[in-house]
Design goal:
The structure is a single chain. With 305 residues, the protein is of the alpha+beta class. It folds into 2 domains: 159 residues, 3-Layer(aba) Sandwich (Beta-lactamase), CATH 3.40.710; 133 residues, Beta-lactamase. Helix content is 44%, strand content 11%. The strands form 3 sheets. Strands 2-1-9-8-7 form a 5-stranded antiparallel beta sheet. The chain has a two-stranded antiparallel sheet with strand order 3-4. The radius of gyration is 18 Å and the shape is globular. It starts with a helix and ends in a 5-residue tail after the last helix. Bound molecules: glutamine. Glutamine binds next to loops.
Length: 305
């Protein structure tokens, strides 16, 4: 496996140049576009990696499946389902999904910003910093990495430039969907997006979704199997935003991208995959990362279809 990953990384490295590093969060623009790394954790706990797999970057939208998982663990499926819908939006991650006078919970999806901002309000805790701490703790547990923490510089950078997310939070409030102080909710969301991870962390997290809530190799059950089904289903239909259909045809796996350049892909029953390459395509997904995943998927027949 290591040799295959090395080969695919070297074959795809030239494509890193075709991507563009996210510039709308100034701190993310500092990333090195030429980097490409991958880590795979198999369902029996074997780890393989290649390229810049140890480089750390901010998790960005890949926190959304973990936010959804914690909301499910805290509230149960019916409550979460009633507050945030599951239909694919077919729109960019920061789209304002507001077509007529009514914005309803069924217009939201957990994998795009409006839905994820609302999910922060469903996390249990007496304060927003405490909710964030519980989310960080779950992320550490899924990754098996107790040292994960928030990158304060990226957090401040996004907070200063996050007018669009702010607009979404206030729109949710004005439509009666968000009941807490929007600024506190946004603070939790921005910090959650700024958790620093590497490809190994993403692969371990993905693997827990691949093996229905268990952690290989011990088999410890971290969360109910049903919630892995729920999260994987939403990842499959909306995890790559308006690129989800194309990604389903090319790769055929539940996956989530982030504008930091990460991709987390779930190969049910087989493996979790973490990829990093900060050059993005026009939809905000890692360009070389998708190519690498497509080729790995073909070599190992990973598509679920
Ligand atoms: N923090 C980013 C934002 O809200 C996350 C977006 C992403 O990774 N696609 O704009």
């Amino acid at each position: 496996m290591d040799a295959l990953l090395e080969k695919l990384v070297e074959e795809n490295r030239p494509f890193t140049r075709e991507g563009r590093v996210a510039g709308y969060i100034p701190e993310l623009a500092k990333a090195d576009r030429d980097e490409l790394g991958i880590c795979v954790v198999s369902s029996d706990g074997r780890i393989s990696s290649a390229g810049e797999y140890g480089r750390t970057f901010t998790i960005q939208s890949i926190i959304k499946p973990i936010l959804l998982l914690l909301a499910l663990m805290d509230n149960g499926e019916d409550t979460v389902r009633a507050r945030v819908g599951v239909e694919a939006t077919g729109k960019p991650f920061d789209a304002i999904n507001y077509t007529d006078q009514a914005l309803l919970s069924e217009h939201l999806n957990p994998m795009v910003n409006m839905g994820a901002i609302l999910l922060c309000t469903l996390i249990h805790g007496t304060s927003y910093p405490q909710r964030l701490e519980r989310l960080l703790e779950l992320t550490r547990r899924l990754a098996g990495n107790p040292s994960l923490s928030v990158d304060e510089a990226v957090y401040r950078s996004e907070k200063q430039t996050g007018s669009r997310n702010r607009a979404m939070a206030f729109l949710l409030e004005s439509c009666g969907l968000l009941h807490d102080d929007p600024e506190e909710v946004l603070d939790c969301y921005f910090r959650a997006c700024s958790i620093r991870v590497d490809c190994r962390d993403l692969a371990h997290i993905a693997c827990t979704f691949a093996v229905r809530g268990r952690r290989p190799p011990s088999g410890e059950q971290l969360f109910p199997a049903r919630y892995a089904h729920y999260v994987n289903a939403v990842l499959m239909t909306c995890g790559m935003y308006n690129g989800s259909g194309d990604f389903a045809v090319k790769v055929g796996l539940p996956a989530k991208s982030g504008v930091g350049g990460g991709i987390m892909a779930v190969s049910p029953a087989r493996m979790g995959i973490g990829i990093y390459s900060p050059g993005l395509d026009e939809k905000g997904n890692s360009l070389a990362g998708i190519r690498l995943l497509e080729q790995l998927g073909r070599r190992l027949s990973l598509s679920i279809f």
